[in-house]
């Protein structure tokens, strides 16, 4: 049941890391003493490194589960699912492939994005199905005694799901970094032009606009990564050394420190509070409601003040 206890007793705190490589926690953040199960919202933007951060968290020895909403979005429209039947009723039989009964995504896109009204119908059907499946997965992890669960989605802020997270983690980089990475990744292999890349970036909420919602910021800017790589005395966290996927050292260190903080929050008195709320679900529900209210008021205060945090890449 206790997936973090033994790890918290034996982990290496890595106090030798400079403060610039600790995840950024903006002033006036919601309290980071997690009583009920902590639902972490992980978000970012295209080519920001969100998927890499998700990969690192999923491979951490703490065994923290990740709910990928992009994966859920595919699952809810599989043959036999109520959402697929609802799409057929709303947009007609042509959105279903006759050969195998799967969703014809191209036809659905043509019909659903023809007018704003039809797009709203699409979102109402799919978003509702995704949220219901997400809630059931969260309940399942709660019943099994997990203390931390990560919800991974690029549209966490846009969809309003940030209100229901105990902590929101933003994987941040500069806009020029996003553009450079997109062209390096898809320029030759997929024929992506600079104009195409800029158009895709324009279609997303800028990462700078998401900063105000974040409780924790993982800085994946290229200049921070370059300067960290020049510090030969900095060592990668031990658990990351056997990973197959190559990942930036700066991001590995920040993820390591972030997960260590989650572990610390469930030690001592925090562990007793969690156990009480796990054994008495109404207490857990009240704690979750309080946390949602606290997050909303915190974000509203940040919006009113116009404050933006100082990022690690500007401090190293």
UniProtKB/TrEMBL annotation:
GO MF annotations in UniProt: ATP binding; dephospho-CoA kinase activity
Bias (Polar residues) ranges: 9-22
Pfam families listed in its UniProt record: CoaE
Region Disordered, residue ranges: 1-23
Keyword Kinase: yes
Alphabetical UniProt keywords: ATP-binding, Kinase, Nucleotide-binding, Transferase
Matches recorded under PROSITE patterns: DPCK
Residues annotated as signal peptide: none
GO BP annotation list: coenzyme A biosynthetic process
CDD domains xrefs: DPCK
PANTHER family xrefs: BIFUNCTIONAL COENZYME A SYNTHASE-RELATED, DEPHOSPHO-COA KINASE-RELATED
Protein name as annotated: Dephospho-CoA kinase
Species: Pseudozyma antarctica
């Amino acid at each position: 049941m206790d997936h973090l206890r033994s790890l918290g007793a034996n982990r290496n705190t890595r106090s030798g890391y400079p403060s610039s490589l600790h995840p950024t926690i903006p002033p006036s953040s919601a309290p980071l003493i997690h009583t009920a199960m902590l639902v972490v919202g992980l978000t970012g933007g295209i080519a920001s490194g969100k998927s890499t951060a998700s990969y690192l968290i999923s491979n951490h020895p703490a065994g923290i589960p990740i709910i990928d909403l992009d994966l859920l979005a595919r699952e809810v429209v599989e043959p036999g699912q109520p959402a697929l039947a609802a799409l057929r009723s709303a947009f007609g039989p042509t959105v279903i492939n006759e050969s195998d009964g799967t969703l014809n995504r191209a036809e659905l896109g043509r019909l659903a994005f023809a007018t704003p009204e039809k797009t709203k119908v699409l979102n109402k059907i799919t978003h509702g199905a995704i949220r219901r499946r997400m809630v059931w997965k969260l309940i399942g992890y709660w019943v099994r005694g997990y203390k931390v669960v990560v919800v991974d989605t690029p549209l966490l802020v846009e969809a309003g799901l940030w209100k229901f997270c105990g902590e929101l983690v933003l994987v941040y980089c500069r806009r020029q970094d996003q553009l450079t990475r997109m062209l390096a990744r898809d320029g030759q292999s997929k024929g992506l032009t600079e104009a195409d890349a800029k158009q895709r970036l324009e279609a997303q909420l800028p990462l700078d606009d998401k900063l105000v919602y974040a409780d924790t910021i993982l800085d994946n800017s290229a200049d921070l990564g370059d300067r960290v790589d020049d510090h030969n005395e900095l060592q990668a966290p031990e658990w990351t050394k056997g990973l197959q996927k190559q990942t930036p050292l700066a991001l590995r260190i920040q993820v390591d420190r972030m997960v260590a903080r989650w572990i610390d929050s469930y030690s001592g008195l925090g562990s007793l509070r969690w156990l009480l709320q796990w054994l008495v679900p109404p207490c857990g529900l009240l704690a979750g409601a309080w946390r949602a209210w606290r997050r909303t008021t915190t974000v509203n205060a940040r919006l009113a003040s116009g404050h933006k945090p100082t990022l690690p890449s500007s401090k190293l």
